Automatic annotation (TrEMBL):
It comes from the Eukaryota. It is an enzyme of class 3 (hydrolase). Its EC number is 3.6.1.42. Keywords: Hydrolase. This is Guanosine-diphosphatase.
């Protein structure tokens, strides 16, 4: 027989689990770290992109309003003016996409705008039909393609998370 001294004073006994509501916070933390990491990596890739080599007259002709910021006209040194990040939440009851637009008016990214779209049914309704599940996300990608300027399609990071 095991004496009560073998357990800490936290009420831990064999067969009894402590309840701790950290999972939602851990999930949100992972998502936040993922978004910030993707933004950091994509900015690093943008510094070597061909867009930075455009002359000022070429830039004036190529400016899409989505490439501008409502907060400033000049980015922080060594940064692009705006950057987009896509986050897909492919859930069991529905799938959602967040298209985040960040500006670099300062030395760190600031969230400037977000596009949100949700589609139902969720991925679990497709069972073994992988093609149908993949096709169900097409509407979300269309929203992303419309929201992100064409010049940034190749360097916009996307993360897909499944909650179920």
């Amino acid at each position: 027989m095991i004496s009560g001294e073998a357990y800490s004073g936290l009420g831990q006994y064999p067969g009894k689990y402590r309840s701790f509501a950290a999972r939602p916070w851990i999930r949100m933390g992972v998502i936040a770290v993922t978004i910030l990491g993707l933004v950091y990596l994509s900015v690093s890739m943008l510094n070597t992109s061909s867009f930075s080599g455009l002359s000022s007259s070429s830039r004036a002709e190529a400016i899409d309003p989505r490439l501008q910021s409502v907060h400033c006209d000049v980015p922080h040194q060594g940064r692009p003016l705006v950057q987009y990040v896509l986050m897909v939440d492919a859930g069991s009851t529905g799938s959602r996409i967040h298209v985040y637009k960040f500006n670099y008016c300062k030395d760190h990214p600031e969230l400037e705008d977000e596009i949100f779209k949700q589609l139902k049914p969720g991925l679990s309704s497709f069972g073994d039909n992988a093609k149908g599940a993949a096709d169900s996300l097409d509407g979300l990608m269309e929203a992303a393609m419309k929201g992100v300027p064409e010049q940034l399609h190749g360097c916009t990071p996307i993360a897909v998370k499944a909650t179920a």
